[in-house]
Amino acid sequence: xxxxxxxxxxxxxxxxxxxxxxxxxxxxxxxxxxxxxxxxxxxxxxxxxxxxxxxxxxxxxxxxxxxxxxxxxxxxxxxxxxxxxxxxxxxxxxxxxxxxxxxxxxxxxxxxxxxxxxxxxxxxxxxxxxxxxxxxxxxxxxxxxxx
Length: 147
Hints:
By secondary structure, this protein is an alpha/beta fold.
């Protein structure tokens, strides 16, 4: 049914619910799971300061997207435990654009996203990730009720 599933995460509890649903769908369908997280780079001054305080043997791990890499690895843990093939995508910029780009690049059949920000008056706010994804997706979208 599905060969490629894309899900976005920002490390929040609601995003974890969407990742959980996407993981179980991928496991049942034998689909590849693409986990996406967008980030704004850490300022160079902060990176330099953190590198100076870190032991020499771990300074290499301090980079502009260190936080997003940890978020992605955490999201992939359950999927890997279930035997799901996972690819991680850290993208600089807008979260909705990152999800849409990965879906298009990988030829995904499905995007799974949480509904946070899609209810009530919030659904009319420009920039709502679920709203933008649902209107511009190159494939089917499953919106998980997370709140």
